[in-house]
Amino acid sequence: MSRFPGQPYFDYRGDQLYVEELPLADLAREYGTPLFVYSKASMLAALGAYQRGFGDRNAKIHYAMKANSSLAILQVFAQAGCGFDIVSGGELERALAAGAKGSDIVFSGVGKTRAEMKRALEVGIACFNVESEPELEVLSEVATSAGKEAAVSLRVNPNVDPKTHPYISTGLKGNKFGVAHDRVLHAYQRAAQLPGLRVVGIDCHIGSQITDVGPYLDTVDRMLDLVQAVETAGIPIHHIDFGGGLGISYHGEQPPQADALWAQLLAKIDARGFGSRTLMIEPGRSLVGNAGVCVSEVLYLKPGETKNFCIVDAAMNDLPRPAMYQAYHAILPVRTRDDMPHTYDVVGPVCESGDWIGHTRELAVNPGDYVAVMSAGAYCMSMASNYNTRGRAAEVLVDGTKAHLIRERETPAQQMLREKLVP
Ligand SMILES: Cc1ncc(COP(=O)(O)O)c(C=O)c1O
Ligand SMILES: N[C@@H](CCCC[NH3+])C(=O)O
């Protein structure tokens, strides 16, 4: 059993931190740093917990690929039978490139463009998760002029507090997402009248990094009340999509396990008489977050007047979550030393005081050592930028004793590819 909750595929053997059967230090030496390293077994285990939770129910898991959209990771989930929840035309093309079929894809997002809708209709996606009444009108126009029928679900804003960081709560009245609870019936009636649309389902997503079952239980009640109301109005709802949002352990959080969560939710859904419906979910972070780390080299140890800095070669452009959400990621030495630890702010080379990865961390490291920023599988690489003209990091997928380079480090020339000087 690993001493890192939620990350059993990363652990020390002697003084070396391993991913599955490989020492991280070897990977860092071979591929350079900063380097994202993912464990395939960890992703499949996380997916397995959801699959166990649903057992033989009529259920479909759409991986919310915004969490990590690297092609080889999408391929792992496609091969394991997942569909994909997408939020842009770019994600649509990536999902297809990774082997998904159109019918494996649901499309969320408040700002779908006509061009994105047209392309999604062309490839026959399973469902548009429509987020507003004006979007229904546009989708109807686009579908009609393309001679297609768009399968539609309305994303409901159930006004449930997910008790998470305000930037990642999405199901509260004040959030931009979804159709307001008291407009839902009206919007379904409109959807049922509009040409080119076929109502198939209902969906919601209340927020991310949820560690408590309470908000999910409230959401189930509100969603099922709505299904009842919409069906009473004569509009059948074939699937119910509860979104994603289940949290992971970054720093001692104890979110419910996916199978236990779903046992509890299914009991409630059954008790309300909806147990035989098609159920859908869109997990992102809980499938990949604890399956990845970012390995970084210590460049300098810099004593300061009020604190000491450990300057590493990963930065806010690779790991934006601390700067954006004051998020905590554990930082571990890739090889332990017997030396006395010192307290450091672990920071990157980017020219911003907000470029920090961890505050007041106890570490025994020297320049040239590697550290692993843990729980970096979700919303790190997919939110990485080129700020300070830093290339995006390389990525390696580990499968037992095998390491696959799934993304090469980006070069400055590659960053400049699409730019032009004025003649
Ligand atoms: C519509 C939708 N579905 C699913 C997700 C996945 O969320 P998480 O990564 O928290 O599981 C998100 C992101 O919050 C989302 O916006
Ligand atoms: N990017 C956020 C999660 C956003 C979820 C998408 N709606 C994070 O890292 O926590």
UniProtKB/TrEMBL annotation:
Residues in domain Orn/DAP/Arg decarboxylase 2 C-terminal?
39-377
Sequence positions that bind pyridoxal 5'-phosphate: 245, 282-285, 379
The Orn/DAP/Arg decarboxylase 2 N-terminal domain covers which part of the protein?
A: 47-288
Where are the bilayer-spanning segments? none
- Name any one GO molecular function: diaminopimelate decarboxylase activity
Q: In which pathway does it act?
A: Amino-acid biosynthesis; L-lysine biosynthesis via DAP pathway; L-lysine from DL-2,6-diaminopimelate: step 1/1
Reactions the enzyme catalyzes: meso-2,6-diaminopimelate + H(+) = L-lysine + CO2
Question: Catalytic site residues?
Answer: 351
Per its UniProt record, the required cofactor names are: pyridoxal 5'-phosphate
Q: Which GO terms describe its biological process?
A: lysine biosynthetic process via diaminopimelate
Tell me where in this chain the PTM N6-(pyridoxal phosphate)lysine is found. 66
**Coiled-coil stretches noted in the UniProt entry, renumbered to this chain:** none
Q: Does the keyword Lipoprotein apply?
A: no
Q: Share what the entry says about its subunit structure, partners included.
A: Homodimer.
**HAMAP family (alphabetical):** LysA
What is the annotated role of this protein in its UniProt record?
Answer: Specifically catalyzes the decarboxylation of meso-diaminopimelate (meso-DAP) to L-lysine.
Report the protein name in the record.
Diaminopimelate decarboxylase
* Organism per entry: Ramlibacter albus
